[in-house]
């Protein structure tokens, strides 16, 4: 099976990176703040530190999560969990 022109059996990680797969039970979520999680995902997608921080701040503001940026995942409401996941999926694009 091919996805985005890549063989799924040989390139599953690259395919997931390109389409923005975020696991449902992301283990890091409960330990990281929203800002840290978005920075982490940005870095995973190859953004440098400054661009990841800039993009994370933009996404937190866009999703109206600026006030919750420093709360760990375990302390956020489920609405915020979904918004953070959306933010992770949106992170690499300008």
Question: In words, what does this structure look like?
Answer:
- The longest helix is centred in the middle third of the chain and has 14 residues, at 49-62.
- This protein has 94 residues and is mostly helical.
- Helix 2 crosses helix 3.
- Strand 1 (2-3) and strand 2 (6-7) form a beta hairpin.
- It has helices at 8-19, 34-44, 49-62, 78-90; strands at 2-3, 6-7.
- It has a domain at 27-90.
- It has a two-stranded antiparallel sheet.
- It is elongated, with a radius of gyration of 14 Å.
- The mean pLDDT is 78.
| Mass-distribution shape | elongated
Strand portion, in percent?
under 5%
Distance between the termini: 30 Å
Query: Major sheet, described briefly?
Result: 2 strands, antiparallel
**Fraction of residues in H or I helices:** 40-55%
Order of helices and strands: EEHHHH
Q: What is the typical, i.e. mean, pLDDT? A: 78
Total strand segments: 2
Major sheet strand order: 1-2
- Count of individual helical segments: 4
Radius of gyration: 14 Å
Residue stretches low in confidence (pLDDT < 50, at least 5 long) are none
Structural class based on helices, strands and sheet pairing: mainly alpha
